[in-house]
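Dear colleague,

Following up on yesterday's call, I've attached the two folding results inline so they're easy to grep. Please treat them as preliminary; we haven't cross-checked anything against experimental data yet. The first protein's sequence and structure tokens come first.
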Amino acid sequence: MNMNKTDNKQNNPAPAKAISRLNKGMHPRNLHNAGYDFEALIDCYRELKPFVSRNDFGNLSIDFASPKAVKALNAALLKHHYGVDDWDIPQGFLCPPIPGRADYIHHIADLLAVKKASKSQIPKGNKISALDIGTGANVIYPLLGVQSYGWQFVGSDVDPVSIDNAQQIFARNPKISRKLSCRLQRDPQHVFSGIINPDDRFDVTLCNPPFHASLAEANAGTARKLTNLAANRAAKSGQKGATKPTNIDTAVLNFGGQKAELWCDGGERQFLHNMINESQLFASQCLWFTTLVSKKENLQPAQAMLQKLKAHEVKVIDMHQGNKITRILAWTFLTAEQQLLWQKYRELR
């Protein structure tokens, strides 16, 4: 009997677990390097199951052009990998891709690493204080930073609805609820002013700037993404003809995000200009200022401005996700000696 069972297993091996692969090039500590294990995600978050099916290659996946499917995937990822319960956002608010957001957090951790005995030590725990500019209703960076490294966060936003939802998410997770405080930016023309208090000290600031200059431009960008998704699906399945998704108008509204999330007057370049200009006013209160720069052509003007303002150190960190490259621009006004003093003071907190 035992031999028969063994023979059956050899003749009919269990099917390999289908895991949706992500693009290579992510940070080595990124939990999503191996892709999406949809079976494990469904076991952890049953609400994801209706959106999961096998694609043309036989792998489990979702329709990434569906706002509801993407939101369910995000909730499942946060619950399975980061222990975050009941994550949700209001309809029409930005639903971020978590793997790419996690990359930002891990690169920032490397930036803050302290060299001890010829080794780099990633700082963890409550002694690291981070400021997330434009935290959004999804409050994704604080969630990832808290659960990956135990950091403390302040999240700021110009939108009261976003602030309220961010606070609700943390309140529904008692183990991390004390690691986030939110501040409403009452003047949308400012970035740090009105948010950083005189007695604040932040080890790092983060930001994913709105990169469109108008609502029409933002909607057009979202429409292009959805059309590209449809075209990729059609190409993989061998279909020809129209590639515009039938629900594109509704999807644009759902994926578009709010004004402060995706667009502002002057677009990303103007936002970076305002941010950099204000950062010098808080030069002694922040160890590192950082921001994503989505458009390559906006990087050189930002670097030129930092040089003009005499930033002591400027770094550009490339994040690779397949063929896509996103840049982190980081700068500090503190000298090397002042940075060491900051690190020593941090240990005494």
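Below is the second protein, in the same order (sequence, then structure):
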Amino acid sequence: MTKTGEVVGEKGVLGRPGGGWPAVGVLAAATFTVVTSEMLPVGLLTPIGGDLGVSDGTAGLTLTVTGLVAAVSAPLLTMLVGRWDRRAVLIALMGALAAANLLAAAAPGVVVLLVSRVLVGLGMGGVWALAAGLAVRLVPERRVPAATSLIFSGVAAASVLGVPAGTLVGELGGWRAAFVAMGAVCGAVAGALALLLPSLPSTGAVRLGGVLALFGRAPVRTGLVLVALLVTGHFAAYTYVRPVLEEMAGAGAAQVGSLLLVFGVAGLVGNFVAGAGAARSPRGALLVICAVLAGAVLLLPVCGRAWGVAGGAVALAVWGLAYGGVSVSTQTWLMAAAPKGREAASALFVAVFNGAIALGALAGGRAADGWGAAGVLWLGGVLVVGALVTAGVGRAPAAG
């Protein structure tokens, strides 16, 4: 019996087609797709800026706009869809993402590109908010931690496959070809959702009062502050990782994709390691993540200058290992802090997460334009140290 009262078997919700691990797998594909769509410009900032005649900081607005829209759309769409079947909503949002990526590919200038990124923000905010809390409705309760880790593995896999693949396609066919390919992937995932997800009627409409009431819980507030500091710090630095690697480690354009692949593989490992650890102790998992992430970001310049591309690769691998566990660990923290308000907590999680992406990209852009590559790493590292302090002294959810 799940928390929502539905009987779940190994093959899904009894009496309904689909569900179970295939449904969990397609939700992982959905998180992979939305995060890849959001993060695609990371490996393409230089060619986008060159083609459209804008600076790296201005090109980074493609992430800022997407994050801001996703931050607003996550709680709003969760409330607006009311009692609609979550399966139908997810399929529609994935279709919107496909259209948004194709519009980006056709953009004649930065304004149209930013409009397309608004549409990406709408789609990804809704998909992520709804998908994040569905594991409990698809598998037996004892399997929920593993299913949640699998759903969030899509976030890490976006770094392993999505961003490096987009960078490679951009190198081979131009940055516009990368967005065309992403539009096709979104369409394919929409079809897979229609095929593999069972009907998922709402278990109760999310109300604004219910969302706001969560702020009254100290563990929820602590979890949201952790998300804000960790994600802002990471994206202040990671959004500009291509110029960082080029300037500080001497990486060539052809090597950037490989280095991002190193980051992503480490992140995928970190996702599953952290998922297992967070199921036992969210605070313990996040203390380790914050300490390792801060060290990797702050030491990247030292490693890159001392050992070149090899040193940069090592630092980037450690960075990826730590950051790969952020999503699943903070989501686990918030689910434990609000066990009876999972969908509302997921909406807040996605809102803060994407607001932090936008803030990190914006702050990193100002640091990149004003202080150069070293500035974005120092800014990111200091914010992650703040998260470490918060994890240590803030109120954690009750055990069990």
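For the second protein, one point worth flagging: Strands lie at 8-9, 12-13.

Best wishes,
A.L.
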